[in-house]
Amino acid sequence: MKARMYLWGLSLLPHIGSITIRRLVEGMGSEEAAFHAEVEDLKTYGGISSGKAEAVVKVRSALNLAEEWNRLTQREDVELVTWLDEEYPRRLREIYDPPPVLYYRGSLGCLDGPTVAIVGRRRASPRGLGWAKRLGRALGAAGITVVSGLAMGIDAAAHEASLETGKTAAVLGTGLDVVYPKYNRQLYGDIPSSGVLISPFPLGTRPQRGNFPARNRIISGLSSAVIVVEAGERSGALITAMMAVEQNRDVYAVPGDPADSGAAGPNRLIQEGAKLIMGPEDVLEELCLSGQLKLPLEEPGKGRSPEASSRAADSTTQELLRILASPLHVDEIAGMTGLPVSVINSSLVKLELAGLVEQLAAGVFQRVS
């Protein structure tokens, strides 16, 4: 318990990142000794300058660590995991320079299975939002946790869609208690019940430009693959993709019209070796082939006939196939069947992957004749 407290204390000090913390702990022999390091120790084992070492000691002297730790651990709305804990996310532990401490709300268990990040620009086009939702629903229905950054645009669309059929993990660029952007307050509140909110930053941390590359690095670190839906030439989504490559993660990209600025990033990634995807089934098949996912997949329109698939389907999918002779919105389907929207979305994703229904517009489906 003490080691966790002192490691948390080290994470609060200025000019000390995770690499420096590891050096200090190794050099001083323990987290407690590292936390109490004096200026010369900080210079010798931490490799930081005299000025920075003096700043560290000054901040530490003003910190009542035990009192602050007790206050944190008594909160019911925040939990803490450190790299000393078994619960620390496995994939994140594997990367170079993982954060020593994560604050979270929800269940870290959703990160134990397959995880895929969906990222893209904030000012997304209707097409981009449609892609993010389609991917989020399909991956969620397949039991994959969708990871993203809770930003507006592609991130929010991916989170919302994956919650309809499965689980999602949101990595924040602020403290866990700071909702940013405010527009996503409802989503921020919904995620912990079916996923997890995560932040490497101390409580109260406001949004700052320098926080977001660190957030993006964690997004890719938590994921076995990253999908870029829309991104400009200087988008943070491209930073996430580059970090994914460094972390030996697969990178997928949704191609687009070269005349569209939002397609510039994905198209460039494809030129540089990212895997082009034309639908959710491409990602699911890749995950199956790599052994990360066990899911019986069929190419749309191939394998079993619609009649055979219908006979094998449960009563819900049979009912959907019956009423989708003409185009219907998900809300209309819910009104006609009385089924929860989450159940309808999950079934529609499976039928779409099997080539039995097609999505004509956002939320509008029809049976394939």
What brief labels describe this structure?
DNA polymerase, domain 1, Arc Repressor Mutant, subunit A, 369 residues, nine-stranded mixed beta sheet, 13% strand, Rossmann fold, elongated, 3 domains, alpha/beta, three-stranded antiparallel beta sheet, 18 helices
Name the overall outline.
elongated
What does the average pLDDT come to?
Answer: 90
CATH-defined fold name of the largest domain: Rossmann fold
Helix content: 40-55%
Instruction: Using the 3D structure, state the CATH architecture of the largest domain.
Output: 3-Layer(aba) Sandwich
Order of helices and strands: HHHHHHEHEEHEHEHEHEHEHEHHHEHHEE
- How many domains in all? 3
Question: Which structural class best describes the helix and strand composition?
Answer: alpha/beta
Briefly characterize the structure:
This protein has 369 residues and is of the alpha/beta class.
Describe the structure.
With 369 residues, the chain is of the alpha/beta class. The chain has three domains: 74 residues, 5' to 3' exonuclease, C-terminal subdomain (DNA polymerase, domain 1), CATH 1.10.150; 182 residues, Rossmann fold, CATH 3.40.50.450; 62 residues, Arc Repressor Mutant, subunit A. The protein contains 18 helices and twelve strands. A nine-stranded mixed β-sheet has the order 1-2-6-5-4-3-7-8-9, with helices on both faces. It is elongated, with a radius of gyration of 23 Å.
